[in-house]
């Protein structure tokens, strides 16, 4: 169980921060989606939480600033465009997710192998288990990267655009898997998501970033309004609703 709190977090790559003054609270077992237009700073904020870019302000896990070691134990991060080692098979790569759990020089146990097999199965990767990473399609590679982070079995997942490159069925299956993890194991999920309809259906809180600053935050139905989507994405949309009341963001063409 991991609760995440951000207090005035600013982060970036040089002298000028690209993310400024972000504060937020993510309860244990919550799903927090960071949304916003291209270049808003979503990935940078996720990297700041993971400790991968210099950051000011405070990132707290369960009420305190974690040590590097605690972070490695608790937090799993899947980047948007990871560099994949060429020669590895899908199984070898996903097994790397178990590394933080192994003792010094220890080899993976039968339990590690079974966690990897189960994860491959869940992400529809079993048939590709022996394939070299470089022979996979874009969507298959993306699922493999997510399998590795899920095999880590951490209590906080930071996922950068996890559904990019996935078809609608695989995207839905992945999001359902994450939702099950948080309901059954109390896993906390923080993800960036471009698909606002998926974000509205799975996340319980949204943070809308624009120009590195928080433009809005709250429940999906509060954040996703046509006016905000016009103001921050320069997009013309209608916000419809599914039968069970979830917002659906539909782009619309306006007569010119
Ligand atoms: N390694 C880097 N060095 C310098 N600037 C960077 C670096 N990575 C990102 N930036 C800049 O920081 C800003 C925020 O980038 P970031 O990737 O966080 O945005 P994003 O909201 O995730 O965008 P997208 O939706 O396009 O993925 C952008 O202006 C980008 O050009």
TrEMBL record:
GO molecular function, one term: ATP binding
Gene3D superfamilies tied to this protein: P-loop containing nucleotide triphosphate hydrolases
Keyword Cytoplasm (UniProt): no
InterPro entries: AAA+_ATPase, ABC_transporter-like_ATP-bd, P-loop_NTPase
Pfam families tied to this protein: ABC_tran
Organism expressing this protein natively: Prauserella flavalba
Annotated ranges, domain ABC transporter: 4-236
UniProt keyword list: ATP-binding, Nucleotide-binding, Translocase, Transport
Name the record gives this protein: ABC transporter
SUPFAM superfamilies hit by this protein: P-loop containing nucleoside triphosphate hydrolases (SSF52540)
